[in-house]
Amino acid sequence: MSSNDRVIIFDTTLRDGEQSPGASMTGEEKLRIAKALERMRVDVIEAGFAIASPGDFAAVKAIADNIKDSTVCSLSRALDADIERAAEALKGANSGRIHTFIATSPIHMQYKLRMQPDQVVAQAVHAVKHARNLCGDVEFSCEDAGRSEIDFLCRIIEAAIDAGARTINIPDTVGYAIPHQYAEMIAQLLNRVPNADKAVFSVHCHNDLGLAVANSLAAVVAGARQVECTINGLGERAGNAALEEIVMAIKTREDLLGVHTRIDTPHILSASRLVSGITGFPVQPNKAIVGANAFAHESGIHQDGVLKHRETYEIMSAESVGWNANKMVMGKHSGRAAFRARLDELGIALAGESELNAAFARFKALADKKHEIFDEDLQALVSDTLSDETPEHFKLVCLEVASKTGEVPEAKIVLSVDGREQHAESQGSGPVDATFKAIESIASSSASLQLYSVNAITQGTDSQGEVTVRLEKAGRIVNGNGADTDILVASAKAYINALNLMQASAAKAHPQVADI
Question: Using CA atoms, how far apart are residues 191 and 188, in angstroms rounded to an integer?
């Protein structure tokens, strides 16, 4: 195949994915995900929105400084300050890209930007030129292109390419497009923009109508050669096009689509689990490619067919995306070398011996509770270990819960608050409710509980429970995570983690808040 037959995979999990309510990630967590994406051979990693907050800037910079095999990108509005901040964050990148955007639909120009079309074109040209002076790789996006007028799109895209943009993104920002209509738009732009051959055309589809993947693939057929997507389809509202579905559709139907990607697909599952664990957004069992039931067969007819010949009911192998690739199960007799080797295979990099020692100690403690330890356990274990490396205002010391049929559950808890132990006890409608009330009697956060979710990390009654707690206060939303073989301890850990994140995280500017 020629170079024009390759589809560039642009992952925006760390930027657009993080805009999901409650999906905020720490800088360390973003770097872990970025390394997993690099290991999967993602072409472009959109690391964040550098001007949004000091934390976002630091995360983009850390990713730019550490990622060498993928292009690292930072989003910016069409404003000089945004562009300069992005360029500063990307200074250490082996390959960097500034991604600047401005809205192009009549409704956005009139009501959000309050600018005339001529002003929007002028602002776009200025932004692209300024970015190009600071970075050799510039992408320009027409925000809300799905509802923009085709003549205006042709005009602003031609001007942006002339100004130096080498990637042009046509986002379906609000998930409004239908596949055949979206493909026709891409085809028209490629045919009508005189200098279209000087840029790669990209698509960024939201899933409001459940069509993000279908729209992206239709655009690829029409000639788009970059797809912007996220792990597990994470993103604002109903999410984005799912990377795993885009990549495997292209790989499985290469005969029809005639294109390919460079993604190393056996790493898809581990990346999916990593993102799910960090964000607290569980993957639904029937989710394509990475769901627990994606390769499960219960029907006798299906089972018989698969046993006789896998391809009777499976269009791709489970191993091709990372299922069942590892046959080595860790246990209490496993040593440090095996532990370190398995972390390396999972793409988990610890900073030094102290982190490795702490993680190994947790591993041994867990191995005393569980007979077999699986990859998912290791992911959760390392997340807990790394969380302990960051300053914590609240820390769980001891939890005692009493729950008996016909009696009101009661929880007694000891928390370390900035190094000083505080005791509390409370009753509740259930043991979890009692535990949370006891914690709140010490924390006095006034946050409201938006979500409490429990998932078994692996199979079996000795499985670790992974708990997600979502708290909201004054419009700020955070997700806390905790894992333990005792579900009540995991619940307390998750609530305390959310409280610490609530204290530590600063408010961030949304990329679309301020007017251009």
Answer: 5
Paired with 194 in beta bridges are: none
Does one domain contain both 408 and 382?
A: no
**One domain for residues 40 and 144:** yes
Question: Which two tokens mark 500?
Answer: 């610490």
Q: What are phi and psi of 435, to 5 degrees?
A: -65, -45
Q: Cα–Cα distance between 282 and 511 in angstroms, integer?
A: 26
Predicted local confidence at residue 297, as pLDDT: 47
Write down the pLDDT at residue 414.
96
Residue 308 lies in a domain: yes
Nearest to 447 by CA among 479, 492, 420, 488: 479
> Does the pLDDT value for residue 302 go beyond 50?
no
Q: Give, to the nearest 10 degrees, the angle between helix 150-163 and helix 117-134.
A: 30
H-type helices in 348-486, by residue range? 353-367, 375-387, 431-443
Looking at residue 512, what is its pLDDT?
56
- The verdict on 115 and 194 lying in the same domain is yes
250 and 131 assigned to the same domain: yes
If you count DSSP H runs as helices and E runs as strands, how many of each does the chain have, helices first? 17, 14
Q: Which domain holds residue 371?
A: 336-387
Q: What is the pTM of this model?
A: 0.82
> CATH number of the domain that 250 lies in?
3.20.20.70
Instruction: Kindly state whether residues 112 and 246 are assigned to the same domain.
Output: yes
Nearest residue to 332 via CA among 384, 369, 298, 357: 369
**Residue linked to tokens 């190393």:** 264
For residue 44, give the 3-state DSSP assignment.
strand
Q: Are 19 and 236 in contact (CB under 8 A)?
A: yes
Same domain, 451 and 343: no
**Least confident interval from 47-51, 87-91, 265-269, 308-312:** 308-312
pLDDT in tens, 35-61: 999 999 999 999 999 999 998 999 999
Q: Name the residue among 443, 439, 454 with its Cα closest to residue 398.
A: 439
Are 99 and 164 in the same domain?
yes
Whether residue 66 is predicted with pLDDT greater than 60 in this model: the reply is yes
Q: Please give the share of the chain, as a percent, with pLDDT higher than 90.
A: 63
373: left (phi over 0), alpha (psi -120 to 50) or beta: beta
Q: Does 52 map to a domain?
A: yes
Report residue 502's pLDDT band, with 50, 70 and 90 as the boundaries: confident
At residue 313 the predicted structure's pLDDT band, cuts being 50, 70 and 90, is low
Alpha carbons within 13 angstroms on the beta-carbon side of residue 252 total: 16
Contact 275, 233 (CB under 8 A): no
425 with 413: CB under 8 angstroms?
A: yes
Overall number of domains in the chain: 4
Give, for 205, the enclosing helix (H) or strand (E): strand 200-205
Rg (CA), the chain: 24
Token pair, residue 110, equals 């009139």
